[in-house]
Amino acid sequence: MGCGTSKVLPEPSENCYVSFVKSVVNYSHRGKSFEDEPQKCKGKQKDIWNIGVALLQPHVQQPTVKDVQHGDSKVARYRAKFDPRVTARYDIKALIGRGSYSRVVRVEHRATRQPFAIKMMEVEAEEGREVCESELGVLRRVSHPNVVQLVEVFQSPRRIYMVLELATGGELFDRVIAKGQFTERDAARALQMALNGVAYLHSLGITHRDLKPENLLYYHPGSDSRLLVTDFGLASFGNKYPRGREGGGEHGERGGSGAGGFGDGRFPRDSGSGGDLTGEVGRGNGGDKEDNSVSQCDVNRDLGGGGRRDWSMMTTCGTSEYMAPEVISRIPYTCQVDMWALGVISYILLSGSMPFEDDSRPRLYRAILRGRYSFHGEPWPSVSNQAKDFIERLLVVDPSSRLTATHALHHPWLVTMVASFSSMTNLHRSISQNLRRRASRSSASSSCCPSSTGCKSSRSRNQGTTHSEAPLLASTAH
Ligand SMILES: Nc1ncnc2c1ncn2[C@@H]1O[C@H](COP(=O)(O)OP(=O)(O)OP(=O)(O)O)[C@@H](O)[C@H]1O
Question: Which domain of life, per UniProt (predicted)?
């Protein structure tokens, strides 16, 4: 699901991947017994032990010929690509999907029979390494019900295997289409979960930079499922954090006082115990930036224009239809770019159509820069003014006037809709019609679409990528 065809990757950074690997390997040389330690560690720290264990465990259990012959041939093919240390612990069950640098498979833990997803990333090529480093850099630090959870990591010279919690509920829009009924309340509930995850990330100084419907997955198929923010391949720590400018994010979600800064998710904070372990992980590629894990956007606001200049990012990346004006303009930006993307997602969620859409990328970028979109056509006449107000406050060209994640969570539309039990207009028919119409149009034109039908595979490795420093509009002009 979603529009993946015009993703723009960031410029490579310097050796971040190496610094992550070093941080884990260094730890492994301290002469401690990894096997003895996990029960002493709680929550996130236990996961970190797992990372160490996975890197160190030497036992090798090759998949047997019988294994391969008896398995489904496709699964067997993928299983053969897996490091024996991984297959020793996890039974590869099925291929879920492929990304530009990754394959995701459903697995079962051999001992506990628990299902997980493993994202296998190719790290030989520099771009794959960068994306992997970015993803791991975030996943190692986060723990929140609305952010996909990393369980452990295996490393081989060519590949990284990330064991993740398995999301079986499908992408955001798959569910919209599958349901016979979809109301503003449903949209608000989904957006509230996405916003909770994003507010948490922002409180840690993490900007996702590629929020879109296909990166929002339901944990399970039930109607009460959590929604998970996934795919941190383009995420950033807002890499110009000055030290000692902690502003106390609005969520009180920061981690302990150590460098770990995990915030309060499902796991207890571990700031006190296991000090050097936390420190070691904190010194990964996050480095000293982690000390300032505050809500970057709120601090930017407090600091005014000068602060914004110091604290923002420059790299152009993301998926065109969801890119904020400041990203397209290549001016320094902040985590508010995620809020723009959430505005785009909100618009699609309530209508099945895109606010900004054009086959010509320069025209698309111009429309975004002007913030020009409309609420014309079905089902907009049936959508409440408060819902439109919510979108209007997110799709604001000036990022400092755009709602922050925390403010969005307090918007009256979201608050009243989430709490509401009254029956509401069913928007499903118009939304799914719009999604389907767009899907068939885009499969004809090989363009992107916000529907599950025919879009996912159209996202190709190099399509729409740029490493240029020139303004996007100039570099793509006619
Ligand atoms: N934890 C997970 N549980 C279930 N499915 C997942 C999980 N993580 C990723 N997927 C699915 O696996 C597929 C590949 O995902 P991946 O993140 O590797 O690539 P992508 O985001 O689709 O593409 P790209 O890497 O180009 O951004 C997608 O369909 C995604 O929804």
Answer: Eukaryota
